[in-house]
Design a protein that fits this description.
This protein has about 450 residues and is mainly α. It has one domain (about 15-440). It is about 85% helix and about 0% strand. The protein starts with 12 loop residues before the first helix and ends with a helix.
Length: about 450
Amino acid sequence: MAKREIDMLNGSMWRSIFLFSIPLMFSNVLQVLFNMSDVMVVGRFAGPIALGCVGSTTTIVQLFMGVMFGLATGINAIVAFHIGAREGDMVRRAVHSAIIISLIFGVSISVIGLSLSRSFLSALNTKDELIHGATLYLSVYLLGAPALSLYNYGNAILSAVGDTKRPLVYLSISGVVNILLNLLFVIVFELSVLGVALASVISQYLSAFMVIRHLTRVDSDYKLQFKSIKYDKVLAHEILRIAIPTSCQYVLFSLSNLFVQYSINYFDHRVVEGSAAAGNADNLVYDVMAAFYTACTSFIAQNLGARKIKRIKKAYLITLSYSFILGFVFGGLLLIFRVPFLSLFTTDSDVIYFGEMKLFVMASSYAISAFMDNAAAASRGLGKSVGPTVIIVLGTIVFRILWIYTIFAHFHTIYSLYLLYPASWIFTAVAANIYFFLNYKRLV
């Protein structure tokens, strides 16, 4: 085993999961900082309208990113399973099939985004003063989708083998490049939303290049050899069996958020801008917590492959504990420092006021989401993807739409809209945990 790789099958799981997750956590934070630096720079140096333009695209960007994250989850689970089962040939076939699927996903997202960006934004009732800049930002940003898909592919493979440090190094380099280019393009060249979009695209291709380059140089079963790239139906089916339902979950989840964004857009543009600024906290906290969900899937998949059943339940409980604590601590810090946090993105006092309203509800509830997301990640580690998807769809998507057309329609206040998040998390968490433990008991 390489020095950077964590042993998921032996030793203390508290220590192994912690060491596995910390680099992944910082990697996830750096990905969020790509978008946050866009919002911070345009908000501080190009004004509130530019902030609203970039912020209005957040839900659509998350929708497309969810598709790629779903694919990466499938790659991670299958590669980890075959590594745990010590099936080197299956690992090699999975690695070379997955890169083809990743490229198809990434290019498709770019084409769809370029063709339909304005239509998506119009359907969301985006304000007239924001839609031109938002369309420009989204169209350019999605040119980086193939690179982001390839980076997630490489990151999924390295996470499956227990190497989460190397992706952190690559994202640190590309993250610094992203921030420097943001400042250059916006302050010096005055390119506003176009500048921050270009900076993101360039940094995404840089991180993709570095992770693919590394995979071609390793001496292991997961080495990428361009001459061996081949679509293997068996392995592709294994990956897509998990990836497609998971991607659908994220797409439908984002669609439910589109309903929320549509409702927010009925309020004054300062409410929209305040929500966009506060939304950066959501992305930050969710992605930090998501490091432990990735650990949950990887550890459970490897131990399932190795038939170490008792370690599966232990991995679930440990990752749940870590993610809950993180959600609680980060939520508390955001409640205390909500005004300084929002001031990173805007100097407009009205925008800060409306951003505080969203942060108050969300920061008080982040820890609850751990029970929902960790259970879904654990089920995927068991190779179950359709069940968690159905539960998430019913518990968050259908539930939220019903909430908007009942509770929110009745009260029509911004608080009555934001409260749908913790309510849906509680509902979904109960069902997701029941599903995981029913499937786990079948293994015992």
